[in-house]
Amino acid sequence: MRVLFTGGGTGGHVYPALAIANEIKKREPQSEIAFVGTSRGIENKLVPKAGYPLYHIEIQGLRRSFSLENFKTLYLTITSVRKAKKLIHSFSPDVVIGTGGYVCFPLIRAAAALGVPTVLHESNARPGMAVRMLEEKTDLLFLNFEESRKFAPLLTKEDLYKSMTVSPGGYGINWGESLEISDGELQKMGVDVEFITINWDSRFTELKSGTIDCIWNGMTIDDSVKANCSLSKPYATNSQVVVMKKDKLDKYKDISSMKDLAFAVEKSSAGEKEAKKISSNVLSVDAQADAIKEVKAGTSDACIIDSTMANSLTADGKDFDDLGYKVSLTTEEYGIGFRQDSDMPEKINSFLDELKKDGVNLAE
Prior knowledge:
The chain is an alpha/beta fold. It is built from 13 helices and 15 strands. The strands form two sheets. Strands 7, 8, 9, 10, 11, 12, 13, 14 and 15 form a nine-stranded mixed β-sheet that branches. The longest helix has 23 residues, at 69-91. The N and C termini lie far apart (45 Å).
């Protein structure tokens, strides 16, 4: 069997691909396996080290706010699909497997167009943009988390992406992506929900333009949020914590001992701000889930993530139960943001009070 893998940029995309490749080799030692990535990602270190050939395609991500770089992205997207087709013709894979990252786009599109079977693997709870754009082009989509189904219409065949409507007695709201509250609880407000993946750096632009009507995604209340949103009252308290391998916790008991560590953080997050105060070696990735994967893989010494996420992911029996934390940094409050002319904060505050009475704890 000949298998072509594509996925890269961070360890969160590359390590799952390598794990699948190694399992294929274990079961079918005669299999021919190759990888496709960019010339900039961590795949250039990890794939050759694992003993697999690596081919390059030039592609870059789309910026949600206006940027001249998007014209280059458009050009590369068109040319990269053509190059991907040539590569597929040359390698003649029996299947193309994508594990996320924008380099997946040209390979999966090209393979689908050529009639080559395609598979996507999404290791995060919230599928990334590349997977969301490609899911209708792929033959199989594998998910790690049950809650990911609400972001994957291909699997559920349910109308979970409803258009914005105003329903009797309630509001239709496009929520900036969140998993903190269930559809059943939102139905108490008469809400039709559409989960939209946004670039966190552009969240205020997306809100003001009407792409989304609400940001509900563990958003820390700070001066920039107050200046750009009409806010609900705080609904949860969270801390930024330093997560690392448990066998290192006793060695790094305070911030001063961590100055030489390599940190992984979610870009534009409170954790990123804190990490840059501690160390000059900071890797910014797309999501907190990617940050903790870097620590698990050993490509970063520590990550700074929300305590709520850390408690969930490092619990006994979970995939990251060999990680933990002892050092807590800033304490913050989470709020829900609406456009500044919105009347929703008052209504959502009443809704939050009702949830609290019903015993629903959004901080968990």
